[in-house]
Model the fold of this input.
Amino acid sequence: MPQEVSGALDATDRAFAIVVARFNEFYTRKLMEGAVDALLRHGADEDDLAIVWVPGAFELPLAVRRLAETGRFDAVIGLGLVLKGDTAHHEVVTSEAVHGIAAAALATGVPCPLGIVSAETTEQAIERCGSKQGNRGWDAAMAALEMVNVVGWIKSLESRVSDPPVTTVDAAPAARAAAAGKAAPRRRVRKRSR
Ligand code: INI
Done:
């Protein structure tokens, strides 16, 4: 029988960073609220969420990547809304943001789901920020949850063949400190035996 693996939708004891573009804030705030709601409803603690605002979608990749590199978050969720304009500028912004976020995930191994809405009209935008078509912020948070647990399972495979046993870092205290704007406490490193 093949082994089937899918990540549990469980955010208990997990830390998340949510990076939100301020450009089109009317919409992106709704994406952020959707993402927070999804995480809290699936067991995350408010104190383990850090919400980071950046100017626009173009700035998402840098912040997402730097946050992922800290090792303090189980996933980093980038949220933005790009509205079609009269020129091709919106295409450039979307393309850079999407590629940059994908690159951040691949470079760090930290799940960085895509929470960027690309809309041709304000009606389409509203539909994807909490009305007819759901909330893409919520969707991105659910993808983050699933991938955190898929990646956790993959890491457990590595730990079975590694010697000495892997260590895991408890990210929660650092996330709380980051959210409160304080210096991070000393990392608590928990040894996990095989
Ligand atoms: N940023 C967005 O988040 N959405 C947009 O629709 C958008 N458009 O279309 O221009 C946008 N541009 C700003 C860009 O993300 C940067 O913040 C800016 O270029 C400064 O680097």
